[in-house]
Amino acid sequence: MNPVRIVSGVVAPLDRANVDTDQIIPKQFLKSIRRTGFGDYLFDAWRFLDEGDLGMTPNERRINHDFVLNQPRYQGARILLARENFGCGSSREHAVWSLMEFGFGCVIAPSFADIFFSNCFKNGLLPVVLDAALVDELFRLATGPAPLELTVDLPEQTIRLPDGRALPFAIDADRKRTLLEGLDEIQLTLAHGAAIEAFEARHRARMPWLFRSNHQKGASSV
Amino acid sequence: MPTLYDKVWSDHLVGERADGQSMLYIDLQLLHEVTSPQAFEGLELAGRRPWRIDANLATPDHNVPTDRRELGLAGIADPIALEQVVTLDRNCQRYGITEFDIRDPRQGIVHVVGPEQGATLPGMTIVCGDSHTSTHGAFAALAQGIGTSDVEHVLATQCLIQRKARNYQVAVHGRLGAGVSAKDLVLAIIGRIGTAGATGHTIEYLGEAIRALSMEGRMTLCNMAIEAGARAGMVAVDDTTLEYIHGRPFAPVGARWDEAETYWRSLVSDPDAHFDSVLELDAAAIVPQVTWGTSPEMVIGIDGAVPNPARLDGARADGVRRALEYMGLVPDQPVTDIRLDRVFIGSCTNSRIEDLRAAAAVIRGRRVAASVKQAMVVPGSGLVKAQAEREGLAQIFVDAGFEWRAAGCSMCLAMNPDRLQPGEHCASTSNRNFEGRQGHGGRTHLVSPAMAAAAAIAGHFVDVRKWA
């Protein structure tokens, strides 16, 4: 994972609560066995009027010009501004992959669903939880006469506004470090391999029935 | 004093990583074709191997067709879907992971297969790259949905890295009325607390109504904990739990069973355990539920009408207005006036034998309404299918005009060819009514199996309690 420090750019406001991962990346694109190739299908049913499928390119699609991400002023947006419970529903990590591939480096919302929130940190997408009143204000600014540009500074834990204000945000210290250093999570855990092995040995002795190889009948039994 | 969740958590806590996060040992990982290929690829690229092979169990479910099953892999017409299913087979063969492949009679939806095989046991920690992994909490297991990076992480380390959640108690007093099921109960709970109501929490369902539920009912209840925002839902161990597990292929036997039972019996919250949040409900007050909108929290009783945004305030009114527009419903429309184009009985929420019995009891001797284009039953596993055929349920469905399919996730998420056309209304026993979930432009109404069956016969929603 690439380290994340500062995300700077235009804010695209998505003014809906409970945006689910089925909307972020619809299921027909989950047939792919790759981690890439999902950016063109982000919010597919909202960005396009026709039904999309894997392999289609945006220039052969019917664009929904009413959808916020298709408006010229939000082209190239780096920050997605969203409402409560963003990313609810399915655990599909493809939702994070598609947001990042589309160009987003940060999502700001009053709250996130747990699995989506966790998936963000595995990939270097910065989810910022911000008080609902401040999110309201950012919505007002982002939909104002000129596009809103923000700088989200992870080391400083602030969102810098064009008027010079800096809004502080909270983030778990460990998760912050993971993002800043772009750490390999598996490597971090495997560094504790001896502790895992020791636990496993105790666990096997205490609850031998949990280890299928200890007692499993023939594989063909029904 | 600890809750059930606290106990299972502490019995699996390996320790803290150098960065301060908890390492939770995982007893069972369920794998399917959609969220595992990138995890296996990541493992391979990093030159790593799975930590513990016998802690994994795999079956293809999300993307498999539910017809032409006798053709096996050749029955998958879509080459991209085929590649995904074959990739799971190949990864399992390579590492020696037990897989019930598309030709295996035990193939089915992972969350039906695990319990059915006795692979799901009380007190386990279970993960799967699927949010409905919460289902297995019915067995007092701590079962959570995870993303693909965590699938890879658990494969490589047998640990999940996370912070402990808070405890949320849902106490359901009294008994559910006749014709009211676990599905109605969980929809009513979600209607009360909302889709983010239990975010950051593990739910424990307890009370007289929960004790009275079968394991199938408890699985339905825990399955939809995620629809209330909770990654996990749990029910304490009792006789019902142990009776269900006993004799299943992967369950322990003999002295090992006795040893396990002693531990399993301790898997209940202590009487004075602390819960961070509590919701109390009267089971007798719950009526059959129907969702009218595009989120599971948009739900009302069968005796109600869809909301009128004119009587709601700002942001809430906008959400309702948008949902009604998508759903093609008008404000104040009675639920019983909603007409159905298709009916789907299936999914990890409601595709077990008890669900099919409840639906068949309503359908017996009746016909699907002529206005319903398609009604289908998709059993949760090959074994559920075989049992339903032995019990004569399949014939009841077929005689009534239902299609009788092979096992898979099918129209719950419509990755395979089973899907709605734009604008169609579907009475569905699945778990999500999100926009387009069951097909582009499709309109999903979540209901219980009995309610879906009655709607198929009537062509519109009816109160199944009034059906003799």
What are its keywords?
heterodimer, A: alpha/beta, Aconitase, domain 4, 7-stranded mixed beta sheet, 7 strands, globular, B: 468 residues, 5-stranded parallel beta sheet
Count of helical stretches of chain A:
8
- The ordered H/E elements of chain A are EHHEHEHEHEEEHHH
Mean pLDDT of chain B: 97
Q: Describe the oligomeric state of these chains in a short phrase.
A: heterodimer
Number of domains of chain A: 2
Q: How many DSSP E strands of chain A? A: 7
Q: How many individual β-strands of chain B?
A: 19
Distance between the termini of chain A: 43 Å
Structural class estimated from helices and strands of chain B: alpha/beta
Note the overall shape of chain A: globular
CATH architecture descriptor name of the largest domain in chain A: Alpha-Beta Barrel
- The proportion of strand residues of chain B reads 15-25%
Describe the structure.
The complex is a heterodimer of chains A (222) and B (468). Chain A has helices at 21-24, 44-47, 94-102, 114-123, 132-142, 173-181, 185-190, 193-206; strands at 6-13, 79-81, 106-109, 126-129, 149-153, 158-160, 166-168. The model of chain A is unreliable at 216-222 (pLDDT under 50). In chain A, strands 4-3-2-1-5-6-7 form a 7-stranded mixed sheet. Helices cover 30% and strands 14% of the residues of chain A. Chain A is an alpha/beta fold and 222 residues long. Chain B starts with a helix and ends in a 10-residue tail after the last helix. Chain B has a 5-stranded parallel sheet with strand order 5-4-3-6-7, sandwiched between helices. The chains are: A alpha/beta (222), B alpha/beta (468). Chains A and B meet through α4, α6, α7 and α8 of A and α2, α3, α5, β8 and α10 of B.
